[in-house]
Amino acid sequence: MLYNLARPFLFALDAETAHDITLAGLRTARALHLPVTCSTPDNKPVRVMGLDFPNRVGLAAGLDKNGECIDGLAALGFGFIEIGTVTPRAQPGNPRPRLFRLREREAIINRMGFNNHGVDALITNVKRATFKGILGINIGKNFDTPIENAADDYLICLRKVYAFASYVTVNISSPNTKNLRQLQGESELDALLSVLKREQEVLAQQHGRYVPLALKIAPDLEAAQVQTIADAVRRNRIDAVIASNTTLSREGVEGLRHANEAGGLSGAPVQSKATAVLTELAKQLQSEVALIGVGGIMDGASARAKLDAGAQLVQIYTGMIYRGPALVSDAIKATC
Hints:
By secondary structure, this protein is α/β, with parallel strands linked by helices. It is 38% helix and 17% strand. The protein has a single domain (2-335), classed as Alpha-Beta Barrel (TIM Barrel).
């Protein structure tokens, strides 16, 4: 496969440079009408959050933060694409280097810090895309917005992206924005979700269309914390929970080069931790809220394991860096 030929070249480069080159290559291929579509199995549509997904396998947020490569990524066979995280204002993120491969464990550590061009630039890119499928837009707060004013940033983004999104994800779980995970606390989470739910109802009336809200949480949670989140999600009638983001744990990568870099760990080592949180959520929510499983999906079997744990949909990102676009097809086969 073409990716297998390209991978040695990409892995010889700095991780963020390789990321940028890959996206540029997909954009160029689409612009020149070159074939980039991967061979994928027959889709088995599924209805989740009131939306019709052609298959259960999506792209997780973080790969295309600015929505610059929607059409190219869609051609890989995903059932849905999630772009972002986007913030109200453009921001550079943390200083480079900020993205590190741990090849021995098929893992990544990142401390990107919500680097993006701002919500207005993302909307411009969405308007240019020809993709007509399910598009999630992941929203966050600017790094310099005080945590007590975080809701203001989420409201700005929600209002701006509402007309262009199939669903909107509220990201309160990145470890790379100072104090962001405080929003997972009981009082903070309830206050944020209630504000966003009220605004969703207003926007649904204005636009004549209901756009579901999803909440993305961390894997670094005890059972009691998961229960608190589940209760807040149920109480505020949030449509879905995405479990989970990257972990601060270094279990399974101890002693490896880059293992002590600050940031969130993704890939194979986070699989069991993310699935444990997903399992606990499923136990608490009892199918009342849609669940999207993400974290450590490296093959079809690990994608299937997320469904067995209670997810209706799955998302991949780091696995595709190591396994290539063929992972999309493998995951679709396993989750049909």
